[in-house]
Amino acid sequence: IRPLNKRELGENQTIGWNFNKQAMLEDTQNGQRVYAYDEVFGPQSTNQYTYEVVGKPVVLKAMEGYNGTVFTYGQTGSGKTWTMRGCDSDPGMMILCIRDIFAYIENHKESNFNLLVSYMEIYNEEINDLLSNEEHSKNLKISTDDSKRGAVIKDLVQEEVKTPDEFMQVLLKGEDNRSYASITTIVFSF
Questions:
Q1: I need a surface site. Which of 23, 54, 87, 188 has the fewest CB within 10 A?
Q2: Alpha-carbon distance values, 108 to 85, 98, 112 (Å)
């Protein structure tokens, strides 16, 4: 649950959900409805804490050779970009993933790593490549389901990166091509 933004605070709005550590609670005419989760991150949760619980285990497994994906889904204003990007004082999931990927590489110099970055969004049930401005970058299709790589998206651009700065430049390029509409999914795969 994202914290209220400056505008919402200025309008004295409140968070419309009751919640506990593992559920969102909705009061209905027929009693309370419970939506259970592995963990609910309240407005006091930092991106760092969320990353430690959700992202870091995925990064570490990915660096050991397993497939991993972190994604956000929701309507506009629900906090997807905040969770994934954050800010300088509370970096989001993508920045923290990048830091740990390169820390892992630094600590495992005996291994050889080749980092390829893709950035896509699923918008209105279409897969769009955010690293390409070409016409064929919209409404991409899954071409194969590889036993090692998982779902392979036909024509999805992959850019090789060697430094955290190069990684961030690729992501910033993708950000420029994102859709900002009512419901979007942001996908960050390893």
A1: 87
A2: 27, 15, 8
The label of the residue with tokens 């919640």 reads 19
Residue 1 has pLDDT above 80, yes or no: yes
Instruction: Tell me which DSSP letter residue 137 carries.
Output: G
Residue 81: count of CB within 10 angstroms of its CB: 18
Q: How far is CA 153 from the centre of its chain?
A: 18
Per residue in 6-29, pLDDT tens? 899 999 999 888 999 999 999 889
CA distance 67 to 81: 23
> How does pLDDT run across 75-120, given as a tens digit for each residue?
777 788 888 888 888 999 999 999 999 999 999 999 999 998 888 8
pTM of the model: 0.79
Distance of alpha carbon 175 from alpha carbon 183, whole angstroms: 16
Alpha-carbon separation of residue 11 from 4, 6, 87, 124 (angstroms): 10, 9, 23, 32
Q: What share of the chain is helix, strand, coil (3-state, %, to 5)?
A: 30, 30, 40
CA-angle at 163, arms to 95 and 110, nearest 5°: 110
Residue linked to tokens 């909705």: 26
> Are 45 and 93 spatial neighbours (Cβ–Cβ below 8 Å)?
no
Q: Which helix (H) or strand (E) holds 72?
A: strand 69-75
